[in-house]
From TrEMBL:
InterPro entries: DUF2911
Organism domain of life: Bacteria
Name of this protein: DUF2911 domain-containing protein
Region listing for Disordered, in residue ranges: 26-49
A Pfam family recorded for this sequence: DUF2911
Length: 191
């Protein structure tokens, strides 16, 4: 029995020593570069609301918007999944945000260059409130929203269309930033 125990302990010690040695292709974090890239692709593919980055020009001004893009999936969106009269992160997962490298005008109001989280307050009728907030890196969306950090609030009139857009989109097109989801089209004028 002692011979068996000593052999077993020796094998365990050897396995521990060799098992703890890093592989030649491993990074300091302990995973290979190929494994890390595969994990990022897999995470992106598995997200129900993929992260989208949209870039574009309005006149001579560059704008970039980052957002999580949820799908309708047969759900009632307005007034149910997205309640009226409550701040909405305008997307899914992390707060959506815009990058503006130069000063712009939004619905006729000045907005300085910078990064801003983008929120809206949907309304059953009438104009929606569009909010640009200085706290742009919010990983839990509207749960971390602080209205004291609002830089600009403007009103934008939604258009209710006959056709439905399954997956939320934010496009930089005339007249500025246009949000579409379900039967909503929300054009936000930018100059």
């Amino acid at each position: 029995m002692k011979k068996f125990s000593k052999s077993w302990l020796a094998a365990l010690a050897i396995a521990t020593v060799f098992g703890c040695q890093p592989k030649a292709t491993e990074t300091a974090e302990g995973t290979s570069a190929d494994e890390s890239a595969a994990a990022e692709v897999t995470e992106s593919e598995q997200r129900p609301s993929p992260l989208i980055v949209e870039e574009g020009q309005i006149g001579d001004k560059a704008i970039k918007v980052h957002y999580g893009s949820p799908s309708v999936k047969g759900r009632v969106i307005w007034g149910d999944l997205v309640p009226y009269n409550i701040v909405w992160r305008t997307g899914a997962n992390e707060a959506s945000y815009v990058e503006i490298p130069q000063d712009i005008s939004v619905e006729g109001n000045a907005l300085a260059a910078g990064k801003y989280s983008l929120f809206t307050i949907p309304k059953e009728t009438g104009a929606w409130t569009v909010i640009f907030n200085s706290d742009w890196n919010l990983e839990h969306g509207h749960f971390q929203y602080d209205d004291k950090k609002d830089v600009l609030r403007v009103e934008a009139m939604p258009i209710w269309e006959q056709t439905s857009t399954e997956q939320l989109t934010m496009k930089i097109e005339s007249p500025g930033l246009v949000i579409r989801w379900d039967k909503l089209k929300l054009p936000i004028s930018i100059q």
